[in-house]
């Protein structure tokens, strides 16, 4: 089953992978429009999702409700995202006010909620890691929207040049509360400068899964199982949008690689220096 999706330069709507194909519960589409172009879309009756503006500005309407002109980032590295939550079966219209790039993460869902905007000011920003495993994590649809969405968990991670993220390595492929949650996930990557690259590592405890992928600007990865750290090549920033969903609620409880727990154990001492 395919898990790596190389970038494709397509104007208009591009379905990278539908819900239920690369993973059971998550999918991803992309939308690229030129100024003054429009697109009308509709989610499946068992899908919810979001419009995450990667760059540019657009007038967005969902189920007849006009949210006005949103966005404004030059690129994903230029601040927090403006996003619109898409309920199950939502009908939406996007009218590009400038050259526009939007990610459309999708997840399998059942309950219907009203659409709403998450402004850049409402994004929860966290700095994580130390030494050479530092990154900034932007939570878009996470704990704060509990009760306003069904299953989707969504955010963005910005990995510093030469640094690791999703590190120490963690996984969330076994339902074992309160130790670990089971969540499918998809990553969508951007690299700055775009001639650079990162590396996605995928592995499990017995190493029956042991894979690496060179990441270029616009690539995507579906994560069904295993630990999944990312590293940015020195001199280049690596961004990834992440979308998760599970059958047992929205609580994210990652399980760290037991061979790397000592790194977290020494973190308080490193912070104290």
Descriptive overview:
The protein starts with a strand and ends with a helix. It has 273 residues and is mainly β. It contains one helix and 25 strands. It has one domain: Sandwich (Jelly Rolls). The strands form six sheets. It has a seven-stranded antiparallel sheet, with no helix packed on it. Strands 2-3-10-5-8-11 form a six-stranded antiparallel sheet, with no helix packed on it.
The CATH superfamily name is: Jelly Rolls
Outline the low-pLDDT stretches. Answer: none
- Give me the count of strands: 25
- Name the CATH architecture: Sandwich
User: What's the shape?
Assistant: globular
Radius of gyration, CA atoms, in whole angstroms: 18 Å
Largest sheet: 7 strands, antiparallel
CATH fold group: Jelly Rolls
The structural class is mainly beta
Fraction of residues in β-strands = over 45%
Q: Count up the helices.
A: 1
Distance between the termini: 47 Å
Strand order in the sheet with the most strands: 1-22-19-24-14-13-12
Helix content: under 10%
Order of helices and strands: EEEEEEEEEEEEEEEEEEEEEEEEEH
Total number of domains: 1
In terms of quaternary structure, the protein is single chain
Mean residue pLDDT: 96
């Amino acid at each position: 089953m395919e898990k790596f999706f190389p970038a494709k330069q397509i104007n208009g709507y591009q379905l990278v992978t539908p819900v239920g194909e690369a993973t059971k519960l998550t999918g991803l589409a992309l939308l690229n429009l030129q100024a003054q172009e429009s697109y009308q879309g509709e989610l499946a009756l068992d899908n919810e999702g979001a419009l995450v503006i990667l760059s540019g500005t657009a007038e967005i309407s969902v189920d007849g409700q006009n949210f006005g002109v949103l966005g404004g980032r030059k690129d994903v590295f230029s601040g927090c995202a403006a996003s619109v939550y898409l309920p199950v079966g939502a009908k939406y219209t996007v009218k590009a006010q400038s050259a526009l790039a939007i990610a459309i993460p999708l997840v399998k869902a059942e309950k219907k909620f009203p659409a709403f905007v998450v402004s850049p000011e409402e994004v929860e920003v966290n700095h994580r890691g130390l030494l050479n495993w530092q990154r900034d994590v932007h939570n878009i649809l996470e704990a704060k929207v509990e009760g306003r969405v069904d299953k989707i968990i969504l955010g963005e991670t910005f990995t510093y040049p030469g640094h690791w993220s999703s590190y120490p390595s963690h996984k969330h492929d076994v339902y074992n509360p309160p130790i670990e949650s089971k969540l499918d996930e998809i990553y969508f990557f951007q690299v700055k400068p775009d001639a650079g690259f990162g590396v996605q590592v995928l592995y499990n405890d017995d190493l029956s899964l042991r894979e690496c992928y060179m990441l270029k600007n616009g690539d995507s990865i579906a994560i069904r199982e295993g630990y999944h750290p990312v590293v940015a090549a020195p001199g280049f920033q690596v961004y990834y949008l992440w979308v998760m969903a599970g059958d047992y609620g929205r609580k994210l409880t990652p399980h760290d690689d037991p061979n790397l727990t000592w790194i977290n154990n020494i973190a308080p001492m490193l912070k104290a220096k």
